[in-house]
Write a sequence for this structure.
């Protein structure tokens, strides 16, 4: 139909090209056609860059439906899903309690741009069970929550500069879409066209797990730093787990210099425990940001802090932040249903134990086969890394060539009905919907795929 679509092999033709142990490539005919059409409408054919499958084989899969731990694409291929909409679907796809609550609320309308009781209900569920924040403000995305937290920190401290860490992603806002320059302490260099240098110059980038760099930054910019922002569980560039001692050092440094500590928990919040990384490490940041997990995967985010800090937000204070869809009733309904499930006794213990055993099984297989592979995990998040390092605590520890192995593994897993996010730098997630049978099937597929990867 489209000249630019590569010829799709029939099963017999495909099998004839396979080496021992390989599976025939899944049929992507409808997805390929949809992708070609999408290119007419969207830059690169997608509405978010990673979806373009540029880091893996084949054209993007267009997903048609999801249920439990499974998704189906436009060609009818079925997959056990470990992407979970990039983490928020901790109960799995199309959870019945979330769906029913959303349908119930939608009968009364879907958007008002005015307060509803649903906002109070979700806020109460969160605040009564999270000792690290006293007040909260809902937004429409994690990026918006981070943007608002940065503005709040600057408004509270009356300072402009922000410290971020290389390898931590905080959404696509201008001030934080930066990478490290050269030297121990640098101003951020823009990672995107369209960001003024003056904006990037207000962001200082240092390496994770580098105390000396932080001390140097505070010495160089004494009295100018409004906040340090960090993913306490860096999970957007691999799973770069930090020692509690380093996070405690960051907390103490902020206290000493009267600047604020922001924990970006858009991924870790409500994933590794109800109180997120703050609760896991028992470290109190000044501001915390959350993402779509508090809305059952619907477009929502939030930021929270002490009542005193949040009093700086308009209409109480001078820091302006607004949003027509903030506190949207449909997202609030989904959040109420999901958060209620997360609060049930033993929810996190069961889910986290399941994830740890799954990750350990893969690593035990790799050890037995003498494969250069580690599986890092925290809570219900895991990351398969093609490395022999026992710890990866900074971006520089990730070898770019290891992504070639992920690319091969990703293709083999798709052909075996297992879906991971289409980038080796992305983490994976287990949901309450993954059963022992599902995970056993996934493990077998991963073992087979690894055998092929390491034969190359």
């Amino acid at each position: 139909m489209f000249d630019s679509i590569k010829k799709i092999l029939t099963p017999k033709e495909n099998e004839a090209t396979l080496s021992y142990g390989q599976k025939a490539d899944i049929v992507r005919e409808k997805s390929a056609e949809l992708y070609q059409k999408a290119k007419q409408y969207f830059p690169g054919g997608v509405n978010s860059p990673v979806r373009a499958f540029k880091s893996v084989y084949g054209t993007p899969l267009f997903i048609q439906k999801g249920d439990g731990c499974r998704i189906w694409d436009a060609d009818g291929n079925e997959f056990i899903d470990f992407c979970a909409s990039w983490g928020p679907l901790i109960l799995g796809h199309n959870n019945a309690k979330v769906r029913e609550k959303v349908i119930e609320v939608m009968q009364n309308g879907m958007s008002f741009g005015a307060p509803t009781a649903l906002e109070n209900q979700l806020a109460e569920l969160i605040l009564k069970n999270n000792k690290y924040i006293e007040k909260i403000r809902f937004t429409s995305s994690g990026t918006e929550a981070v943007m608002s937290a940065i503005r709040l920190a600057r408004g509270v401290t009356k300072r402009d500069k922000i410290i971020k860490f290389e390898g931590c992603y905080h959404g696509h806002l201008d001030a934080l879409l930066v990478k490290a320059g050269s030297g121990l302490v640098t101003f951020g260099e823009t990672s995107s066209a369209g960001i003024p240098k003056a904006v990037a110059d207000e962001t200082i980038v240092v390496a994770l797990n580098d105390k000396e760099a932080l001390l140097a930054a505070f010495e160089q910019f004494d009295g100018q730093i409004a906040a340090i922002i960090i993913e306490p569980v860096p999970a957007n560039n691999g799973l770069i787990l930090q020692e509690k001692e380093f996070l405690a050092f960051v907390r103490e440094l902020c206290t000493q210099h009267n600047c604020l500590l922001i924990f970006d928990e858009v991924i870790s919040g409500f994933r590794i425990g109800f109180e997120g990384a703050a609760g896991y490490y028992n470290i109190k940041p000044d501001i915390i940001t959350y993402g779509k997990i508090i809305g059952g995967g619907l477009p929502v985010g939030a930021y929270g802090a002490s009542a005193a800090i949040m009093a700086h937000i308009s209409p109480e204070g001078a820091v302006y932040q607004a949003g027509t869809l903030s506190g949207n009733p449909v997202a609030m309904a989904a959040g109420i249903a999901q958060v209620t499930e997360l609060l049930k006794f033993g929810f996190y213990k069961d889910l986290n134990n399941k994830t740890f055993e799954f990750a350990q099984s893969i690593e035990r297989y790799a050890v037995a086969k003498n494969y250069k592979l580690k599986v890092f995990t925290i809570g219900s998040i895991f990351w398969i890394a093609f490395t022999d390092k026992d710890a990866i605590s900074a971006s520089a520890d990730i070898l770019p060539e290891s992504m070639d192995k992920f690319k091969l593994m990703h293709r083999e897993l798709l052909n075996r009905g297992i879906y991971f996010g289409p980038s080796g730098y992305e983490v994976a997630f287990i949901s309450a919907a993954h059963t022992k049978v599902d995970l056993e099937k996934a493990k077998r597929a991963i073992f087979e795929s690894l055998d092929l990867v390491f034969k190359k």
The longest helix spans residues 347-369.
